[in-house]
Amino acid sequence: MSEKTELQAAVAAGVIGSEEAFRGLLAAIVEVARSIFGARASSILLLDEETEELVFEAVVGEGEEELLGMRFPAGKGIAGWVLATRTPLVIEDVREDPRFATDVAEDTGYVPSGLMAAPLLHDEQSLGVLEVLDRPGASLFSLQEMELLGLFANQASIAVDLLQRARKASRLLDADGELQVVARLAAAVDKLEDDRREAGLRLLGELADTLGK
Amino acid sequence: MTDVAGHGWDASHAALPAWSLPKDAVERISLPSEWPERVTRDWAWGGSTGEGARVCILDSGVEAGHPLVGGLESAVTISVGENDEVIAEEDAEGDVSGHGTACAGIVRALAPGCSLSSVRVLGSSFTGSGGVLLAGLRYAIEQEFHVINMSLSTTKKPFAGVLHELADSAYFKRSVLVASAHNMPVESYPWRFSSVISVGSHEEPEPLAFFYNPSPPVEFFGRGVNVDVPWLGGRALTVSGNSFATPHMTAICALILAKHPELTPFQLKSVLYLTATNVGGGR
User: Fold this and answer.
1) Cβ(A135)–Cβ(A91) under 8 Å?
2) Which residues of A touch B96 (CB under 8 A)?
């Protein structure tokens, strides 16, 4: 990260939402996805670039507690294929896939019988995978539903991008205490109202001029 | 069967200048096959099992010996060397997700006589997977496969230019590239290029039903919903997605090219148009 973007991130960290707020947004997305597809569970898996693993970041429905935070190699399995090829996929009767069963499902005791997965794409990046699992007694997934999941995944991608920006910014502040004061200033000014805000911005302007001399 | 390896190509053609046709050379490019007045499915692939056609599955690997896949002509895994050279090594791992095996099974079911090869471009590492995809495609074109099944695409714009060159190079070398259309509103490649056969899904249960799309970029719709396919560990699954419609079109291309090896990708696409279910395929 360049010096300029470091400063921008520091300012942004002071005013953009917290990690918890974005987590709440991801949780809401999987909840709605589960609801509109009448499924038993839905989850968002994100790519951890450093370890090349997929991590369950939001889970609703069966397996919720066990799956959250669980990791597995990003290059393999069904979610790995969707992530790498950036292509949605529908699989019925996932129990038949031994890799899925041994890697994730059997550990948690929750074994889905059907899965619909779409990549989370932002610009040219593949950020993760949105999954919808199991529809008891329902018919098989249709083409229209796949397209709907794709549209939904696009919305989720924007939330994921914001979450990752927030994480990047907070990591930066943890690592570099010098810039924390910039974030505190940005947050303080952001909270001011009316005359005090105007005065605060004027003060900062004067400060910038003085420092720039 | 005529010369499948050379696609019926007469070496004397190579002596012609590429950009003009002298008067005395006209006879030398007379077409080796005569098309019937009406191109039917029976003319296009009747009696063909795909024998003689070499098909490549560019994907996650293929589980060799799966009862629904059978033997493979070859299986390699692709990586990129320090100097950007393409490294193709014998694939000891097989399929890392099940998807490549599914595609191979679809092709095998429709074109049981064709030769299948696996070029694995997934699974080694997530970072740099776009470069491996390009390297794998380059390798497959060099191997002169008649049909290359590409049920995947990349959204990385820097790769689009190179992919475009590779797709054109395959087109002129008579390797037919059959590529999955993306069913999400994103820009991805190579399915958008006109030199490939791009495939989306229809919901009909008939495996040989395919539709020509008069509003490209997606040119054809193949069977892509609730398809029974082989998966890892000798198992079978029911799956849906454009990535499964693509091997249906790959198999039909293999059937046609096995019977008419002289066809260029341009001519093959014309035969596909004329035999599409919504054009002449119902007759």
Assistant:
1) no
2) 75-77, 80
